[in-house]
Amino acid sequence: MKAFKGRANMNEHLRDLPESRQRKNLLYDFYETLLTERQREIFVMHHMEDCSLVEIGNVMGITPQAVADILKRTNGRLNHYDKLLGLIEKFETQQATAAKIKLALDEFEKNPVSQNITEIRNLVENFIS
Known about the structure:
The protein is mostly helical. The protein folds into two domains: 1-85, Winged helix-like DNA-binding domain superfamily/Winged helix DNA-binding domain (Arc Repressor Mutant, subunit A, Orthogonal Bundle); 87-129. Helix content is 79%, strand content 0%. It has helices spanning 7-14, 19-31, 37-48, 53-60, 64-85, 87-110, 114-128. The longest helix is centred in the C-terminal third of the chain and has 24 residues, at 87-110. The radius of gyration is 20 Å and the shape is elongated.
């Protein structure tokens, strides 16, 4: 399964997942290129294709314990990258601001007053800064 390249597709997929799994998928989507090919393959098989450690071990020619070790290191590496770069927090902030902009625009459609325009302008300025 490929990572989600478009934010709309990513959001649709993530809505139905438990929070911890959502976070792992977001980490992968943002930082997958910083992982080795082997780490990516094992992460995808386990977290996105729901393969067991034994199944992954059989495919990769390694023990289930080696798979578990690689997954643990990979998850640690992904979390480390996010601590350094903070892309998930930025993404979540942008999503929240976009939702506020949508609400403000919906309100403006119902009642077009200059106060709403000012609010929308402020939200957009915060979004792009």
